[in-house]
Design goal:
six-stranded parallel beta sheet; three-stranded parallel beta sheet; Rossmann fold; alpha/beta; UDP-galactose 4-epimerase, domain 1
């Protein structure tokens, strides 16, 4: 039975990945970690938890050793919009934290590491529709810079040390369980909250802005599928393109109107528009489909219906 550590477990993906891992492997076999102790009613409260800053290698190694960890899901990161507000912090957390994870894994015999990447690795010179698996990576944000560096670091540890490091280039992730967390694609989450609360939303990107997105259940499923995949089938390590849904901000607003007829969305683009414009509109994920049989389950209509179904009673309460 695997013994797993999740860093950044209180984040958008970690807070749903951790319960999914505990359901699969048992609550006592999955250790959640983050900078703050979770509340008693948090989804992280159902198993072991450790206070951990991934920049502290000594503390990280102590946690790995004390729990006999053999797999790490490294989800701790500073996202794109937050990173632009504090580039030095983004580099410190995203790069130094990753190096610590890789070094501790190598030193302690951890069997496998998951380190997510992002569509932020792409830039204005990348083909936009779709972005190929192999293409120019020239990002315009510090977040993107850290993710390109992370992909290369992971590949280096595979080749140099034989450490099994795997990763996905996540598109924008849409979740019904956690609020926006400082990313450029956060409008696609916040719009649901405001639609249900006030029937109005001011979007920070243009209505014609098309970006690749993925609903959280597909995100969790893709993550587990890659980590489960037979290593002999994999042709990539840390940089698999993975696609879900591509839609414009106006497409999403129109889909919400089908469920909330009085909803009105206006548009006031801010600095995040330039970030969105540097990213592709769709993703070519043929290697993921070939190597580990990836297929998304949700389209725009089914994702929107499920988001509203989940959020409506919670926000009403």
């Amino acid at each position: 039975m695997q013994r797993i550590l999740v860093t950044g477990a209180a984040g958008q993906i970690g807070s749903e990945l951790t319960p999914a891992l505990r359901e699969r492997y048992g609550s006592t076999h999955v250790v959640a970690s983050d900078l703050r102790t979770p509340a008693a009613d948090s989804p992280l409260s159902g198993g072991p938890f450790e206070l951990l800053d991934v920049r502290d290698r000594t503390r990280l190694q102590a946690v790995v050793v004390s729990h006999n960890i053999d797999a790490i899901y490294h989800m701790a990161a500073i996202l794109s919009a937050t990173g632009e507000a504090n580039p030095q912090l983004a580099w410190d957390v995203n790069i130094n934290g990753l190096v610590n994870v890789l070094e501790v894994a190598r030193a302690t015999g951890v069997r496998r590491v998951f380190c997510p990447s992002s569509i932020a690795v792409f830039g204005p010179e990348t083909p936009r529709c779709p972005a190929p698996q192999l293409t120019v990576l020239h990002p315009s944000t510090v977040y993107g810079l850290t993710k390109v560096t992370g992909e290369l670091l992971g590949d280096y540890y595979v080749q140099r040390y034989g450490l099994d490091v795997r990763g996905l280039r996540y598109p924008g992730i849409i979740s019904s369980e956690t609020p926006p967390g400082g990313g450029t694609t956060d409008y696609a989450v916040d719009i649901f909250y405001q639609a249900l609360r006030t029937a109005q939303y001011t979007c920070f990107v243009r209505p014609d802005t098309v970006l690749p997105m993925m609903y959280m259940p597909d995100c969790i499923r893709a993550t587990l599928a890659l980590m489960d995949a037979d290593a002999s089938r994999l042709t990539r390590h840390c940089d698999y393109n993975v696609a879900g849904i591509s839609f414009s901000a106006a497409d999403l607003a129109a889909e919400i109107v089908r469920h909330i007829p009085g909803f009105a969305c206006t548009y006031e683009p801010d600095f995040r528009q330039a970030i969105a414009d540097s990213w592709p509109q769709s993703i070519d994920d043929a290697p993921a489909r070939t190597d580990w049989d990836w297929r998304p389950s949700f389209d725009l209509a089914s994702m929107t219906a499920d988001m509203i179904r989940r959020l409506k009673p919670r926000l009403a309460a």
